[in-house]
Amino acid sequence: MSDPGHVLYVEGETRAGMADVLSNATDRVEVRAASRVEEALDLLSAWPADCVVSAARLPDARWLDLLERVRTADGDRAFVLHPAEGSETLASEAIGAGVTDYVADGTSIDALAERVHAAIDGTNATSRDRGPERVVDLVRSIQSKLVRARTTEAVDRGVCEALVDADPYVFAWIGDHDGTADEVVPRASAGVEMGYLDAIEITADGSELAEGPTGRAVRTRELQVAQNIPEEPGYEPWRADATERRYRSSAAIPLVHEGTLYGVLNVYADRTRAFDDAETALLGDLGETIAQAFHRIRLRERYEAQYRDLFEDAPVMIALTEDTATGPVVEDCNRRFADKVERSRDELRGRPLADVYTDEATKRLEQGGYERALAGEFVTAERTLCTRSGERLETLLQATPRRNTEGDIVGTHALYVDMTERKRAREVIDQAEAMEASMDGMAILDGDEYVYANRAHADVYGYDDPAAIVGNSWRTHYDEAEIDRFESTILPSLAEGEEWRGEATGVRADGSRFPQKLSLSPLSDGRYICVVRDVTERRRYEERLERQRDNLEILNQVVRHDIRNDLQVVLGYAESLRRFVDGDRSDHVERVVRSARDAVEITETAGDVAEVMLTADTETASMGVRRPLIDQIEEVRSAYTDAVVTTEGSIPDATVSGDEMLGSVFRNLLTNAIEHNDAAVREVTVDARRSDGRIVVRIADNGPGIPDDRKEAIFEEGETGLDSEGTGLGLYLVETLVERYGGAIRVADNEPTGAVFAVELPIVE
Fold first, then answer.
1. Residue 226 and residue 236: Cα distance in Å, rounded?
2. For residue range 686-704, what is the model confidence (pLDDT) as tens digits?
3. Residue 33 and residue 58: Cα distance in Å, rounded?
């Protein structure tokens, strides 16, 4: 910038006088002041400033309004927000709105001047650079590199290159923490380096060389930032080398996943205060993502090493084939395969598979055998191989598709078992096929360690891949009590060659416990087969059946026998009184007869409830609430003429999921509100309203109420009401039915006295 730039500082009331302070701090810009938005716009029309600096609080409009009007007049004009009191929310809003820069409160005047210079020069993180687009592009770039990376070196290289391609970063490197020497050793870098990593030394031992962002990040496992390298107190050991290369701020991001440090990422910018809250949050998230990539790659490398060991040392012949236009060729094979056909592995690689087949076996290969293997349809078959010396080698073959890292089929895995061990071969093949096809979790253990697990076994214990289990101890799937039981009573019997079957409690990968049926069968070679089945649902089903049987027993005993017999006696005597009572009192007898008959009908209904409770999967249907509720209100009014039953407002005709027992819910609650009411005039109020996709029916009374310590107990099986001689089944059945309909019931105090029962049922649209 050869000529002085023009800066308009809109001070408002919170930044009064800052224009003069900024003007005194630099001779590279001419600074003018405005206190209000309208004044600033008038000045800009006559004096087109290169940059507008604004306080956050303005007397006549929001800073955001000023930004929009400034950018409408000139879309390229720089705009710097300089609040007197900042926050993460304000910073996020400013970046999202597209300010050129956000300078937090507490920033020195020299730093502010430098940021304004950068805004005018266009070397800062502009609104487009610092906006969501740049952040999204950076994240996508790094994530795409992580997804494609197959090695830790590729991760290091991809991350560093992606960072230095994004302004304002100019240099990035990743280092390892050497625990022995307690120092950080660079392992990858990109950007403007010019020997920087050769010139510096960084430790994590608490010395002066450990007080920079990198050393602190290693010690604290948290992101560390140096916002102003030329002035940062702890940056002295590296300041000269950093400023010589125009590094003005830096951040150190520990790469940590599940407590393991996979290195520390260092990023440098060519201006001060490049790492605001949004930027550091992004880098912190990237650190975790990068560490997960390292973790994934190292796990895969370990599994691949285990697979390679298994491949090399397998007691059977294994060949990996590649599908070519001229037929399958041997891409690789294990030592046993090469030894059996009397050739070296180097000699076999790239050679047609048919070269080690007899003519008859080659014919089967060409007549569809290989195509079936590629399609995953190959079944175990006999194949005759030919050795170098011309001897025939009778084998059993099992072939499956082989895929590359993109999931495309590129050839086959071919497993050959020498027929001289025919019985053993048949057992191995059958066992492998059965295990893979089984819906039960099946695994093979050698001592304490898994050497094989099928997909179902991994699913039972909550793993995505059986490979996550292979190589681990079976003890990871049980708690200490179960491990003690296995070691003391079960493993000794297995050592004697006995099978064991029983139940145990397993532990999934997420730490949850579950009941299981387990069988352990020893093999002749000292290993043993483990078959496990999750019986959680079966256990729940058994518990549900047990509860239903208990419910039926109670209902049969109390309802169908005791109550019904007594009611039949009452009904018989009441009907016989008709001959002896006339006049007005005959109405009394008729009322007794009707009530007794209704009570007998209720016992029948209760019996129906028992049948419903014995049904494992109760079927419900859509039905209206209004009619069953009104019917029960009318019946209760008729049965209890001395009680006052009223409704508040109209009852909505909401549709819920229920059955013919829905009316019993309301009948039990209404009769309960009257029968347990000791007021001189027993009053019950019913209110029904829609609320948040549910209908809430409230039944309130003016009785004695329910003590707090009994509000939950009244719904329990066999719990009686206050001063009641009854069985206590009414409210228990109410709660059972309401839960069956997907609803809930609660009880609260009424004002000034009494109780309120509220039934909530989801509305079915």
1. 12
2. 999 998 999 999 999 999 9
3. 13
